[in-house]
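A reminder from the course coordinator: this example appears on the midterm review sheet, so study it carefully.

Given structure:
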């Protein structure tokens, strides 16, 4: 939903109409957001078109769409470029984020642990801005690891429908497989 707001708010503010195609894995939050926004927007200013790859390709190729904004994988970004080439659309593509954190030797590991944890695991780590790599000075490496472990051990995790849980599962099997491979490689 954050990505949706970041992309649609400036477009609407500048007087444009918006057609959004949410991820096929997470359409409900974007549909709900549009339903709320459409209670105050003029008719036909904001539309949401759920669907898979074929919908995205059709939108990227459509003559009536002047600009495409996308956040996601590099492979999908390349497909958008190919689909939009004949209409020479303006593109804004945020692809394959790989955000790093740096912990300097004068950092208090216990004071930084919560922020580092949430930097990596906000939305169960399923956001483009999530911390993916952490570089820690060797002088405090063990202390940072211990502080992060303590935070993780105290974090209620489990089924997303249980309101006592702070972190839920990964959103789909394909994402789980990617994370499992990363853990195995590490």
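Designed residues:
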């Amino acid at each position: 939903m954050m990505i949706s707001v970041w992309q649609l708010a400036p477009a609407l503010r500048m007087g444009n109409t918006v057609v959004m195609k949410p991820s096929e894995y997470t359409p409900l939050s974007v549909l709900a957001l549009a339903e709320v926004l459409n209670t105050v927007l003029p008719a036909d200013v904001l539309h949401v078109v759920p669907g898979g790859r074929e919908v995205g390709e059709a939108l990227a190729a459509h003559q009536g769409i002047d600009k495409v904004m996308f956040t996601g994988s590099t492979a999908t970004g390349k497909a958008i470029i190919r689909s939009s080439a004949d209409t020479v659309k303006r593109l804004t593509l945020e692809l394959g984020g790989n955000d790093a954190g740096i912990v300097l030797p004068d950092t208090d590991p216990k004071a930084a642990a919560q922020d580092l944890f949430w930097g990596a695991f906000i939305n169960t780590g399923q956001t483009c801005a999530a911390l993916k790599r952490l570089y820690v000075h060797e002088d405090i490496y063990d202390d940072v690891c211990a502080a992060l472990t303590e935070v993780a051990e105290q974090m209620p995790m489990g089924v997303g429908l249980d309101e006592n849980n702070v972190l839920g599962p990964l959103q789909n099997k394909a994402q789980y497989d990617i994370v499992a491979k990363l853990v195995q490689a590490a």
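The first helix runs from residue 2 to 13. Residues 97-157 form one domain.
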